[in-house]
């Protein structure tokens, strides 16, 4: 048998397609070249990249289809199959001839681009050499193989091509959905070692082998518009299944509509380890239902209205802004908060801002179902000169209250909250600049230093935890920590918004005034996670788990240091906003979700709805 | 007697659940022109595909030239010439090119012979295949099937769609080129009158089985129709070989195969009030085999 | 009617009417088969049958010729052959209810036409000569 005769037949059979395809891919680069020659602005490789990247793979699919279609006509099919040549050999020849043609078409603009850039004495960018060209090369092979295999099966050019393209899209999306990291997909083309490259090659080879056997045994599928639609629906379904399994796998135990009158009112807070709803009912789980029990006396808003809204002027600040730092002593409940105030000044650039010149620590107590102020301590001496942005944070450890205002720390003994005593004199904590570790693109292994807060009367470990939270969790440190201690090793966690990673820093050792930490681990957000989450409002660690809350997303990670950061659960409510979230003692979670009637008529009363969700702890 | 050119034993084949061939037995004598009859869609092409080794039979044997059609398919295909039903070829090729292409598959392609054939068939060499007339197209297909001088030629309804003159021409070529050289021709058709003049043997395939296989002469001689008046003692339910029986008015027509003297006598004895015996024309015979009411009546 | 019967009748008719004349060479089996697109075996059978009836004569290694005459067959054999051929016509006549006299008339007419055709063609031939 003369193989060259068959190859010759294949090529001459496709000669018009080849000519048209080469014409199509070359029109733009040649035009670009001519225009560049005239204007003298050189040759931009972008157009070549675009052609090679978008058009060449699609054309590869078309070549595959017309290559197969020319032979799969029912009557012609018997013609060549009855010749004394192995059917598999014939199909293999067809496949490789078509593949060579596809690669040739792909190579035309690329080689042209290289030659022209060389003529212009320019260099081909490494991005193009290392990334785009290998990428579309592999892409073209995959589309070609899929279209070839599908056409053998379906024997209809248009449908085969369409499904081939859809499947390619599906396979391209797959790694985004699978635990594979989506950055892998792109790095493969640079490194050519990744799993995804192997995946593409496996798909292509499988498709080729399938076409061999399908021709040998005359397998084919009858398709019509209906089955085509079903196929598309099936693919979309699989995508959605993968999607939902990845981002919505926390079980909802109970959904309960609630009435609430205030915006931005945090409905959930802690007293000790217990979660309190609307500051007057303990929340616990009973048979997977929310169970409420009265705290003892209605408490309501701890901060007086005059302080909390500042009379409409922005010349104040409160920490915690809703007065949620509550401590139970005996049967009494005490609330601590700091109030900073100042006046409006003009900055050098002419805009107005607040200059803080006073700060006060308030202590309130529940008496006859409402909050009564019992203590007021002036903290103004903690403020530096010209403070435009006051730093405030608080944490209770045992019977001590640590109050950070600006760069100072004041410690109080709160054994008797009505008569709190300052333990130490004001301590200057730090004058160093702030560290934004969760906003910096540090490499893995990078080391950072955190100044140690010179707090007295607590253990060394607590001191480290306090220092870390003071720097990276100030806003929420009154009720949560980002630090986890496992077997005596201290790590802290956070979401890095500049690299879109969940990161773990490990405390290496401490020096007299600083602790040295190293970036141990980064977990890249997957593509889908990126799609649903908007902004991390809060991240914290509790009982060996990392909780991350964004506007409409809750993610829970396991942070066992040996196993790395592994996602345990993901909860998304796209049209809801997570207002507040708390972890119950049994590990279940309570969420306050708000849903806005964005498109409701203006006169509608029900503009928003509030819900309490009980979620199963993953 | 020498080994048959094609020998098929107990061949079964089905597409999914649909059984197409249900135990086909067939022997094609060497050097004969074998007419293979069947209505469209009865499995003729399926059987031919099996003979070409294009599909694996589910059970049974198919020997072509003494070789198993599935396991030795490449060797077989070198020795056979095949022309498909309504054969299509690469329309964009020129006649010259397609001959060259087909020749590529065979080590001993006889160019001298094909050139001669092309002249004989009046095939223009420099014209595209898609521009050929129907008759020329089938001539070309025949040429491509014969170029390597096969000793077995399989023609699957080759005259389908040809006008009577082109059909006659085609048959003339088959006789002249093939029978003269002692080539075995397996000629499938759905028209008995078409293959009757050329075939030595005739086999009829119906509903997946061969209902009759004999020489053309036997087929003609042995099928008889009796027209009889119904009578109470008329009972031929026991009789073998009844192909068709139907009643019109006050007569019954019975078509009987393998009609010999003893059968004739038996029928005559059963119907004392007179029988009339007639021979059938070939299309009537074919019809009796494939659509006859074979039940007893 | 079977194809080989048709061919036999045709040759017989041609011999009877003088289109084929004594001593004429008829085509070989292969040639005739190809010409008529009929199986060679059928043609062989036709020639054999006609030889038996003495219409044709095969000369080994040379070819087949139109035989010189009918003398070799006995009158009873000839009668039998004609009776066979007439049976079909008779059957048809009975079926179509044609009286015997009219059938005889027709037979006579046909007989005479063929005789005159034969005589005519012989005359033409001698004229040409």
Written account of the structure:
The complex is a heterotrimer of chains A (618), B (297) and C (129). Helix content of chain A is 38%, strand content 30%. Chain A has 618 residues and is of the alpha+beta class. Chain A folds into three domains: 3-247, no CATH class; 296-429, no CATH class; 430-572, no CATH class. In chain A, α2 (15-39) packs parallel to α5 (87-119) and α7 (157-177) runs parallel beside α10. Chain B has a six-stranded mixed sheet with strand order 6-7-8-3-9-10, sandwiched between helices. A four-stranded antiparallel sheet of chain B has the order 2-1-4-5, covered by helices on one side. In chain B, α4 runs antiparallel to α5. The model of chain B has no long low-confidence stretch (mean pLDDT 84). Chain C has two domains: 3-66, Winged helix-like DNA-binding domain superfamily/Winged helix DNA-binding domain (Arc Repressor Mutant, subunit A); 75-128, no CATH class. Chain C is 67% helix and 8% strand. Chain C contains five helices and three strands, in the order αβααββαα. Chain C has helices at residues 3-17, 29-36, 40-52, 75-95, 100-128; strands at residues 25-26, 56-59, 63-66. Chain C has a three-stranded antiparallel sheet. In chain C, α1 (3-17) packs across α3 and α2 packs across α3 (40-52). Chains in contact: A-B, B-C.
């Amino acid at each position: 048998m003369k193989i060259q005769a068959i190859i010759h037949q294949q090529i001459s059979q496709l000669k018009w397609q080849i000519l048209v395809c080469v014409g199509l891919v070359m029109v733009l680069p040649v035009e670009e070249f001519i225009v560049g020659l005239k204007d003298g602005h050189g040759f931009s490789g972008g157009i070549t990249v675009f052609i090679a990247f978008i058009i060449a793979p699609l054309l590869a699919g078309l070549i595959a289809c017309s290559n197969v279609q020319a032979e799969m006509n029912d009557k012609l099919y018997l013609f060549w199959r009855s010749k004394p040549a192995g059917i598999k050999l014939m199909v293999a020849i067809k496949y490789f001839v078509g593949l060579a043609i596809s690669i040739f078409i792909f190579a035309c603009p690329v080689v042209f681009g290289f030659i022209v850039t060389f003529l212009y004495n320019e260099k081909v960018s490494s991005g193009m050499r290392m990334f785009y060209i290998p990428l579309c090369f592999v892409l073209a092979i995959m589309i070609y193989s899929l279209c070839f295999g599908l056409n053998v099966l379906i024997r209809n050019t248009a449908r085969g091509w369409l499904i081939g393209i859809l499947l390619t899209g599906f396979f391209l999306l797959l790694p985004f959905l699978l635990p594979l990291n989506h950055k892998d997909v792109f790095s493969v083309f640079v490194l050519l070692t990744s799993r995804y490259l192997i995946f593409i090659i496996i798909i292509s080879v499988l498709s080729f082998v399938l076409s061999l056997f399908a021709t040998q045994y005359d397998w084919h599928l009858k398709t019509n518009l209906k089955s085509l639609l079903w196929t598309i629906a099936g693919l979309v379904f699989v995508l959605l299944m993968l999607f939902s399994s990845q981002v919505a796998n926390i079980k909802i135990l109970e959904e309960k509509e609630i009435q609430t009158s205030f915006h931005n009112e945090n409905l959930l807070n802690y007293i000790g380890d217990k979660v309190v709803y609307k500051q007057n009912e303990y929340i616990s789980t009973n048979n997977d239902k929310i169970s409420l029990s009265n705290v003892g006396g209605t408490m309501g808003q701890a901060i007086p209205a005059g302080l909390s809204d500042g009379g409409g002027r922005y010349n104040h600040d409160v920490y915690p802004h809703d007065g949620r730092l509550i401590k139970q002593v005996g049967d009494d409940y005490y609330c601590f908060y700091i109030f900073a105030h100042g006046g409006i000044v003009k900055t050098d650039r002419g805009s107005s801002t607040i200059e803080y010149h006073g700060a006060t620590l308030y202590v309130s107590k529940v008496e006859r179902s409402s909050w009564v102020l019992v203590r007021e301590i002036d903290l103004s001496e903690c403020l530096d000169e010209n403070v435009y942005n006051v730093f405030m944070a608080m944490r209770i450890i045992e019977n001590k209250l640590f109050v950070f205002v600006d760069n100072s720390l004041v410690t109080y003994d709160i054994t008797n909250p009505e008569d709190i005593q300052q333990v130490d004199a004001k301590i200057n904590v730090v004058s160093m600049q702030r560290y934004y570790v969760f906003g910096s693109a540090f490499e893995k292994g990078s080391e950072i230093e955190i100044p140690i807060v010179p707090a007295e009367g607590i253990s060394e470990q607590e001191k480290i935890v306090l220092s870390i939270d003071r720097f990276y969790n100030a806003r929420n440190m009154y009720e949560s920590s980002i630090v986890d201690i496992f077997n005596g090793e201290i790590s802290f966690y956070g979401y890095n918004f500049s690299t879109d990673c969940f990161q773990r820093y490990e405390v290496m050792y401490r020096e007299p005034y600083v602790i040295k930490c190293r970036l141990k681990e980064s977990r890249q957000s997957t593509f889908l996670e990126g799609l649903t989450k908007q902004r991390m409002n809060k991240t914290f660690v509790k009982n060996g788990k990392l909780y991350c809350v964004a506007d409409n997303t809750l993610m829970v990670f396991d942070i066992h240091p040996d196993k790395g950061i592994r996602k345990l659960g993901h909860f998304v409510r796209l049209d809801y906003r997570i207002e507040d979230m708390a972890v119950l003692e049994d590990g279940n979670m309570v969420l306050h979700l708000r849903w806005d009637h964005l498109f409701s008529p203006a006169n509608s009363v029900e503009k928003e709805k509030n819900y309490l969700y009980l979620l199963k702890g993953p | 007697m020498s080994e048959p050119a094609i020998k098929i034993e107990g061949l079964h084949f089905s597409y999914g659940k649909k059984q197409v061939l249900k135990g086909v037995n067939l022997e094609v004598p060497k050097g004969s022109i074998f007419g293979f009859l069947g209505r469209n869609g009865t499995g003729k092409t399926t059987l031919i595909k099996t003979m070409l080794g294009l599909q694996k039979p589910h059970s049974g044997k198919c020997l072509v030239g003494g070789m198993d059609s599935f396991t030795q398919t490449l060797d077989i295909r070198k020795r056979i010439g095949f022309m498909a039903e309504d054969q299509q070829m690469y329309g964009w090729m020129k006649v010259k090119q397609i001959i060259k292409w087909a020749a590529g598959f065979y080590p001993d392609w006889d160019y001298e012979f094909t050139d001669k054939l092309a002249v004989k068939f009046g095939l223009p060499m420099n014209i595209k295949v898609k521009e050929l007339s129907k008759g020329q197209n089938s001539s070309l297909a025949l040429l491509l099937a014969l170029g390597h001088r096969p000793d077995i030629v399989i023609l699957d309804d080759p005259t389908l769609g040809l006008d009577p003159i082109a059909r006659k021409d085609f048959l003339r070529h088959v006789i002249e080129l093939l029978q003269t050289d002692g080539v075995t021709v397996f000629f499938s058709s759905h028209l008995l009158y078409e293959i009757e003049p050329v075939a030595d043997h005739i086999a009829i395939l119906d509903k997946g089985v061969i209902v009759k296989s004999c020489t053309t002469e036997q087929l003609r001689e042995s099928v008889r129709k009796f027209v009889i008046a119904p009578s109470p003692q008329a009972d031929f339910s026991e009789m073998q070989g009844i192909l068709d029986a139907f009643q019109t008015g006050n007569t019954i027509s019975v078509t009987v195969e393998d009609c010999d003297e003893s059968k004739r006598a038996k029928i005559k004895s059963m119907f004392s009030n007179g029988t009339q015996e007639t021979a059938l024309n070939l299309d009537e015979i074919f019809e009796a085999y494939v659509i006859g009411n074979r039940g007893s009546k | 009617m079977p194809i080989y019967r048709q061919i036999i009748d045709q040759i017989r008719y041609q011999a009877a009417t003088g289109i084929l004349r004594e001593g004429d060479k008829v085509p070989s089996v292969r040639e005739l088969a190809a010409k008529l697109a009929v199986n060679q075996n059928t043609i062989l059978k036709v020639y054999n049958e006609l030889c038996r009836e003495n219409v044709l004569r095969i000369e080994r290694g040379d070819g087949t010729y139109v035989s010189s005459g009918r003398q070799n067959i006995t009158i009873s054999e000839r009668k039998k052959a004609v009776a066979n051929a007439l049976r079909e016509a008779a059957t048809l006549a009975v079926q179509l209810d044609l009286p015997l006299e009219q059938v005889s008339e027709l037979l006579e007419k046909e007989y005479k036409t063929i005789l005159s055709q034969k005589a005519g063609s012989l005359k033409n031939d001698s004229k040409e000569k």
